[in-house]
Amino acid sequence: MKLIRIISTFLFYIARVFSGGYILTALHVLLSVSLKLSTLEILKTGRFIIYYPFTNKRFLLGSSYTKNYIAEMILLITFYGTFFWLLSDVFKTFRQKKLFTIAGIARLRLFYVTNLIICPLLFYILSLFSVEDYPYLVMVTAHFIMGVFALFIGAIFQQGVNLQKDQDLFI
């Protein structure tokens, strides 16, 4: 179990870093576009560039400077920031000394509900209005598989909590 705690701790921090990066990126895009900061350059071709803050190095290149495209971009980046945060919470569950807890079940439930319900709905809505040609079916399938595994693990954790309660009552 010690190896699992070490690996989950490492993955917890990696997922949190990814989450922070995605959330900060979404915030940077939102601020650059809405406030028309100097980090935004609109090209004559209708595309746009967002630069790293306080530099002239390119960070993101947008295909179309339209409200729909920018909203889609910010929504997807924010979704994946949230996804990685929830994933880090799943790894947080495996870092605990006491593995089977109500808090762990709640983290797993939030993760599998996001992957099984929210993700397909979000991608379906985006596919109706999307400017980009994303492989939505592949993305939904990957999230569905992760969600099913999290659902199974959540059921195992629920059984573990029930067994712990029974054992606590027996002693």
From TrEMBL:
The name this protein goes by in its record: DUF2975 domain-containing protein
InterPro entries linked: DUF2975
Keywords noted in UniProt: Membrane, Transmembrane, Transmembrane helix
One Pfam family from the record: DUF2975
Claim: Cytoplasm is one of the keywords in the record: no
Tagged with keyword RNA-binding: no
Native species: Pedobacter rhodius
The organism's place on the tree of life at top rank: Bacteria
Transmembrane spans: 12-31, 69-87, 108-130, 136-157
